[in-house]
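Reopening: structure tokens for the zinc ion complex, inputs below.
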Amino acid sequence: MKFLADRTVGKLAKKLRLLGLDVADWREGKLLQAAEKAKAEERILLTRSRRIKEEEIGIQIFMVDANDPRQQAREVLTKLGVKPKPEEYFSRCLRCNEELWAIAKEEAQGGVPDFIYRLYDSFHRCPRCRRIYWPGSHLERMKKDLIKTLPGSKDEPGLAEAETPIL
Ligand SMILES: [Zn+2]
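Re-run output (same inputs, fresh job):
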């Protein structure tokens, strides 16, 4: 299942990308152009806007109710029955939605703070924005946040300790 997120759900898009889901952005241009793109790529439009009508643009729309991005993510996963794959967590650029490429440690030199370069051996790069990702404490925090995002996680305390691969 692939998505297109409009401006009303930008933070939600990032949360879903953390889980490895394919969520393209729609930031500018006319609604009909975005609809064409969504149609061609079989994407579901995620939005909080109530002005957009499914029948007018001929694509599937998921209207997000919650205010909180984490709740929004749960809403999408639960109502659409999406099951993110742990091996795909952290596989995309949070800004661009591009799939990250593994790079040699040497390629990260100069592109990340020195102490980060010394600390880690595994680096990934976004092919579009060139941003470099590494497995750091910020990812650990995101990992916890991400697991809380998953439906049913509150009832399954064991899940919070589950090992998930990070970049
Ligand atoms: Zn990027």
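The longest strand covers residues 43-47. Residues 93, 95-96, 98, 126, 128-129, 131 surround zinc ion (CB under 6 Å). Marking as resolved unless the reporter disagrees.
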